[in-house]
């Protein structure tokens, strides 16, 4: 894992060609490499990070720097290892275009997905900064952790372009991390070669390495390394919850925003087979066998020689390949418990915490998809099933809502309640539906809040109305206020009360704007009571 905190940060104003050692300028820019100090005009889109100089792309008020390596490519012998430091370069690196996305099977129906090439060589990040920013600006930093069920997604999709959000006076960073078997995989042969415990959760290690890079380098772009807010949706939000509990991530961020991040999932044990199923190592061995490696011949070198296409397999959001893929793993170092248990024990980072969900997370899915998803959840409700169905008012409402509530809605309120006694905590519900999709809608679906927080409404391909733009403005107002100060309040808008168990209030973002509302429903309270019996 990248841990080098001794690297030198050199500002734009300090980076001059040839005479750099002798000349200093007070402006936050640098001179071109092919110019002399006497005749060159300042070049505002070149910065130096700890591995070399970068030339970004200037788009009027925003400069973007893309495809910045934050770790060495995890290829060949580096597959299934902790991220290593990125290699330095000598020339000015072109940072005007996105790099590769990590290996995955994309969903053809997703209009917002990235179109970048897929590769194991994918550990890169992207930075957007105001064109006027200098190392002295010390702007708040917002670091996006993408979702996708730990099997898909990237930091390069158009809907996550940071340009609009930067206009709010922040620096925006997005990045990739290893996914599916490349990012979350265990096998006895890999465990044997990692006595320090740096194993299994390679995707989380990548996230930590990216945050370490930001800590070392973001000042060069005008950011404040001591005012970093991580924000993420779905698996990205889940990642943030886990990072709040991870010792190696301590001190790398000062605020956290979790959007539809869940928290009740119990991950696979690294080595212990039990009543809940086989261990991650057993599942890894099952995959090795399916890939053609005989038991005893499945050493680390043989595993790393498996073609990337075979490792990827058919894993996707719709095909988890549960018999040979685990997702995140209880490794005892980064992941030591479920998020819910960790928060209940007060082990999370005590940073300002903003958490919430959408009003109709998965209710938009046809019954043909919801029924197989709900079956294992319903079975686990046991003797409480009838009481919980009654709390919903009808079996039909229960069938439509149970997956959303167990996976996203109830955990958000539970984590807010757990955190509220020890850190500033804010709970929200996003229920705004775009005018283009309002007909027949029963609420805001999973991930529909992403275009609003980034201000990239047109990236969805839908017609954008003035009401949609206003909804985006309001959401950005609150979230960037939180990133700047830790308190999500905005002049002229409804005051967002800190969450307490006693008051049990949240802020709802709807077609009427932002307003304080009750957080509890009978169904969610019944679910929390059920989980408390475990």
Automatic annotation (TrEMBL):
<dbReference type="Pfam" id="PF00135">
    <property type="entry name" value="COesterase"/>
</dbReference>
<keyword id="KW-0732">Signal</keyword>
<comment type="similarity">
    <text>Belongs to the type-B carboxylesterase/lipase family.</text>
</comment>
<dbReference type="InterPro" id="IPR002168">
    <property type="entry name" value="Lipase_GDXG_HIS_AS"/>
</dbReference>
<comment type="similarity">
    <text>Belongs to the 'GDXG' lipolytic enzyme family.</text>
</comment>
<feature type="domain" description="Carboxylesterase type B">
    <location>
        <begin position="44"/>
        <end position="365"/>
    </location>
</feature>
<feature type="signal peptide">
    <location>
        <begin position="1"/>
        <end position="37"/>
    </location>
</feature>
<dbReference type="GO" id="GO:0016787">
    <property type="term" value="F:hydrolase activity"/>
</dbReference>
<dbReference type="InterPro" id="IPR029058">
    <property type="entry name" value="AB_hydrolase_fold"/>
</dbReference>
<dbReference type="InterPro" id="IPR050309">
    <property type="entry name" value="Type-B_Carboxylest/Lipase"/>
</dbReference>
<feature type="domain" description="Carboxylesterase type B">
    <location>
        <begin position="401"/>
        <end position="514"/>
    </location>
</feature>
<dbReference type="InterPro" id="IPR019826">
    <property type="entry name" value="Carboxylesterase_B_AS"/>
</dbReference>
<keyword id="KW-0378">Hydrolase</keyword>
<protein>
    <recommendedName>
        <fullName>Carboxylic ester hydrolase</fullName>
        <ecNumber>3.1.1.-</ecNumber>
    </recommendedName>
</protein>
<dbReference type="InterPro" id="IPR002018">
    <property type="entry name" value="CarbesteraseB"/>
</dbReference>
